[in-house]
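Hi V.,

You were right to ask for the full record rather than a summary. Here it is.
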Amino acid sequence: MKSYSQSPLPFQGQKRNFVKAFRESLTHYSDAYTYVDLFGGSGLLSHTVKTVFPNAKVVFNDYDNFKQRLKSIEKTNKLLEQLRGILANYPRKQPITGEARASVLSAIKEADKRGYVDYITLSSNLLFSMNYSVTLKGFDKASLYNKVRLSNYNGTGYLEGVNVIRADYKAVFNEFKNVDKVVFLVDPPYLSTDTATYASNGYWKLRDYLDVLQVLVNQNYFYFTSNKSQIVELCEWISTVSTTANPFANAVRNEHQTYTSHNTGYVDIMYHYKKSTDE
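Predicted structure:
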């Protein structure tokens, strides 16, 4: 099975910076466990588990319908090939204006009429860094840049052997919470992060984010967050003024510094906890 170190398609918040630490932490488990990726995202966590434990049961809750994007890679590549032709003599990484812009938008509109455009991938190829639009109307209004990828995307075998489902994470958790030897992979959209590219857009209020923490109680888990959310500090504070336990108290913490500019950024965090009864 081919091992991917990052998602084969652009995805906001994918966990490529934690793949090494995640693989190392998985050595505490085995093929005998069931791994449940509650929020799915780009599927990188599920894919990584499957490469480490080929015989394990891995459940990928594809809430954002990433599988549809994978199935449509051929259509995406066809559109990008067309855009490369339009921009063949256009300077790289420069704003697309005039007739070139009109031609690019025309190609996107024709692809949209044919039934499917992966606007998230298209955003990575035509919009300024870290900007996303998920609609044709959004591209019509946006400033476009010639960042079109020079090679085609390939997702061959990426979710091979993974059980793909699509449901509310609470229902998935309730289905598996009492399974013997289960590990939950918990990577919700970060609090205070733009969720326009997620199917859960508009869903992640503070209360919803705190609700997610309930799936960590008395479970094996990998949980991902960042210091922007301050959720860890909140849990620490609550545990000092009440009898509510801090779900991260005995978890192992890994960090990765992410820079958004020369001198600003944030810290991505991975928590791993294994129950003592599973030692």
